[in-house]
Amino acid sequence: MNKRLILIRHAKSAWDDPLLPDHDRPLNARGLGAARDLGQWLASRGYVPGEVLCSDALRTRATWEGIAPALPDAPEPMLKPTLYHAGSDVMLAVLRHATADTVCMIGHNPGIAEFAHRLVKHRPLNTEFQKYPTGATLVADFGQIDWSDVGYGMAEPVDFIVPRELVA
C-alpha cells in the first residue's frame, strides 16, 4: 500500500498574554477558522489520515481539534512531546515509527518547513511552500514503502495549500 503524509504547521496562535509559556499558547480566532477550513479542504479531497502524530503544544492540539470534525473517522492524535519545536531529523525519526498508510503530522516552524523541503523530490509550484506559513499543509506520497525506510528526497508532492487560499 502507498504511504501518504499530510504535513501541517499549526494554525495561527494568539500572543495576547506575554506571560503565557510558548507551549501553552492557544489559537487565535483566525487560527480556529483556518483549522476548520483545513479540515473541510482535507475532507473534500479525501485526505483522511489513519494516524495523527502531533506535538503536545496547545496550538498543535487545537489545530487538530479544529480539523478533525470535518473528517470521517478522524483518529485521536498521538501526542509526541519530541515534536515540540523539533528539527527535521527528529520529525523524520518520529515518522519512521508510524503505522497507518496515511499519516498526519502537526508541528512547528522552523523545523516543519525544513522537514517539508527536505522530504520532497521537487517543490510544489505554490510560492507559499518556501515560507511554510501557519496552517500550511503539504500532502505527499512515498509510494509502496515502509515508513521505517522513508528518507529525504523521496516524497512526491500531491497537494499544498495555505489557509488564506481557502477563503472564498
Features:
168 residues; Rossmann fold; 6 strands; 22% strand
Helix and strand arrangement:
Blueprint: E1 2-9, H1 29-44, E2 51-55, H2 58-67, E3 77-80, H3 88-95, E4 102-107, H4 111-119, E5 137-144, E6 156-161
Parallel strand pairs: 1-4, 2-3, 2-4
Antiparallel strand pairs: 1-5, 5-6
Helix pairs in contact: 1-2, 3-4
Biggest sheet strand order reads: 3-2-4-1-5-6
How many strands, what sense, and barrel or not for the largest sheet? 6 strands, mixed
What's the helix-strand series? EHEHEHEHEE
CATH superfamily: Phosphoglycerate mutase-like
Any idea how many domains?
1
Counting DSSP E segments of at least 2 residues, the number of strands comes to 6
The gross shape turns out to be: globular
* Fraction of residues in helix: 25-40%
Q: Which architecture name does CATH use?
A: 3-Layer(aba) Sandwich
Note the total helix count.
4
Distance between the termini: 35 Å
What Rg is obtained from the alpha carbons, in whole angstroms?
15 Å
